[in-house]
């Protein structure tokens, strides 16, 4: 599909990501007299929508679903009432190409959509504090699971064509003046993010911004990270002006206060669209099984050589993963992180899948029986 036809590229919304694909999706609503728009901000049932006649305020009353995964979100493309309607309503959302989703902090089986229709996920990690590799792996697992609709079909053929490509950006690189030390840190992160670009950048010296600007100049990019990771500073540098509020981080732990309180979509001067998000304290997995597999691809490849297809990589005979661990070819930290994310993703999935819950209970019983049998055998040898 050609996504850059002359009609699409000259459209007033082209700077917000409009293309031939969205034009085709919107055609049934055009005959109804509705106008296309992209949601740039959502706030308490209202949203700001970029339309051909400018950014307008619209009510989301007609698209309030029972499913929290389908609420209006920054990045959505919508069909909106035409100019002159008072008030203006968002009448429907166009099918999402991608969606970045995390689990909510509640005990209910719900996901929270943070951004939609994104092409790049930039995970911001501050070099002002000690690197948390497990958190980087967690963000990557979610980023690599960011697929819906047509993106899932592309992902089946090539997992790196999922519609949302991850990039790890190490911010505040000026705080690591020694090139050798910086190179070592980049290499360590690359180990935790195999196959993912890792870019050290500095808003002070502009180091790395030429490469990053080239990445985000095509499509829609979402910035993710903890408070104090430098997302707003990075956004201002990419935008070429101080659009986002920036506050100093605490010296004691490098953490910052939430300067960004809503998700905002902003067109970049060099092309592309940026979505800045509030700092994320918790990043719960949501339907991230495929993402975990990609982040830990080397473990998945090793597991294919295990004697048993359901090997838990603990004490089973013929475990290729344990063999690699014992030989020093697989870091123990990676295996522990892999296990933790798999368990968490299973728990989240089991909340809505009765069959999976039953399978998990059977597996717990099986392992319990194995443990009891092993203890009995040990006692027998000691008698």
Shape, per Cα inertia axes = globular
Helix and strand element order: HHEEEEEEEEHHEHEHEHEEHHHHH
Strand order of the biggest β-sheet: 10-9-8-11-13-12
Strand content: 15-25%
Counting helices, strands and paired strands, the structural category is alpha/beta
Q: Write the CATH architecture name of the largest domain.
A: 3-Layer(aba) Sandwich
Helix content: 25-40%
Number of strands: 13
CATH fold name of the largest domain: Rossmann fold
In short:
This protein has 12 helices and 13 strands.
3D architecture notes:
This protein has helices at residues 6-9, 20-30, 133-143, 150-157, 179-192, 209-216, 231-239, 289-295, 297-303, 320-326, 332-350, 354-382, and strands at 35-43, 46-51, 54-59, 77-80, 90-93, 99-103, 111-116, 120-126, 165-171, 198-200, 220-224, 264-267, 273-276. The protein has 383 residues and is of the alpha/beta class. The protein is globular and about 85 Å long. A hairpin with a 5-residue loop joins strand 12 and strand 13. Helix 3 (133-143) packs across helix 8 (289-295). The protein has a 6-stranded mixed sheet, sandwiched between helices. A 5-stranded antiparallel sheet has the order 3-2-1-4-5. A two-stranded antiparallel sheet has the order 6-7. It is built from 12 helices and 13 strands.
């Amino acid at each position: 599909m050609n996504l850059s036809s002359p009609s699409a590229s000259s459209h007033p919304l082209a700077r917000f990501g409009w293309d031939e694909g969205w034009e085709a999706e919107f055609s049934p609503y055009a005959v109804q007299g509705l106008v296309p728009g992209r949601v740039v901000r959502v706030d308490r049932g209202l949203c700001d929508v970029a339309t051909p006649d400018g950014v307008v305020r619209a009510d989301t009353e007609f698209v309030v679903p029972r499913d929290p995964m389908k609420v209006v979100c920054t990045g959505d493309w919508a069909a909106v009432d035409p100019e002159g309607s008072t008030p203006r309503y968002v009448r429907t959302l166009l099918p999402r190409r991608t969606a970045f989703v995390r689990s909510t902090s509640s005990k209910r089986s719900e996901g929270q959509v943070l951004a939609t229709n994104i092409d790049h996920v930039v995970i911001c990690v501050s070099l002002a504090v000690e690197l948390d590799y497990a958190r980087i792996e967690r963000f990557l697992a979610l980023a690599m699971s960011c697929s819906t609709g047509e993106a899932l079909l592309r992902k089946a053929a090539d997992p790196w064509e999922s519609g949302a490509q991850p990039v790890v950006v190490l911010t505040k690189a000026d705080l690591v003046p020694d090139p050798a030390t910086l190179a070592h840190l980049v290499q360590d992160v690359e180990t935790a993010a195999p196959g993912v670009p890792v870019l050290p950048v500095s808003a002070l010296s502009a180091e790395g911004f030429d490469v990053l600007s080239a990445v985000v100049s095509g499509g829609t990019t979402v910035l993710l990270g903890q408070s104090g990771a430098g997302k707003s500073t990075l956004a201002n540098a990419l935008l070429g002006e101080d659009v986002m509020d920036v506050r100093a981080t605490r010296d004691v732990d490098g953490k910052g206060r939430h300067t960004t309180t809503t998700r905002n979509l902003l067109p970049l001067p060099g092309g592309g669209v940026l979505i800045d998000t509030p700092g994320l304290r918790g990043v719960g997995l949501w339907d991230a099984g495929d993402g975990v597999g990609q982040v830990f691809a080397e473990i998945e490849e090793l597991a294919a050589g295990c004697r048993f297809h359901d090997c838990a990589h603990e004490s089973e005979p013929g475990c290729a993963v344990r063999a690699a661990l014992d030989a020093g070819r697989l870091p123990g930290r990676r295996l522990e992180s892999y296990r933790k994310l798999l368990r968490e993703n299973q728990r989240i999935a089991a909340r809505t899948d009765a069959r999976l819950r039953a399978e998990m209970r059977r597996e717990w019983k099986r392992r319990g029986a194995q443990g009891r049998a092993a203890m009995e055998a040990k006692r027998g040898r000691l008698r």
